[in-house]
Design a protein that fits this description.
two-stranded antiparallel sheet; globular
Amino acid sequence: LVALLGPRAAGASEAHASAWFDERLTTAVIGDLLEGRDDAGRATGLISAQYGRASMSEALARAMTLLGAADGALAELARVCAAQGVRRVVLVPCGLLGLLPLHAALVPAPEQAGETVPLQDLVRVTYAPSARIWAICRDRAREQVAAAPEALVVGNPWPQPYAKWLAGAAAEAAAVRHVVTRVEGGQVVPP
């Protein structure tokens, strides 16, 4: 796991990279989290859960707990971020790690012995396919800071034969549209 950490000090602008390895997260273990089966042959993985063949809450709980193990890479990342005051991290997961909800890993809670919290509650998590692509995108974003925001807002994937209606999706899409549009003189002005 490679993580691009935000600036170490207030006012600094450059990120730095750190890498951690977790010997438990083998290809076989990650494959089991994604497509595993229990002793009775029932599907238990996250991919199966997305298709309704396994319990999503059980698959997520298993993945989040294993990913955030106290002596694992994501727990160490959380400790380093807390110790250095890092508020944002860019994860560059390799291979099958990119299919796991690393941001939701249940890491040890700072100052709360025995408690866990999702990594994303401690630090803002962003994903990138590589450090180079992240740096290029960051530079392009800086160039367009003054430009008006643009967004393609998809309110609901329904009707698709494999997708269920998403309750609240239309309201969420309307809220996002409101954020990326401006109102001048009582009229909606497109971005």
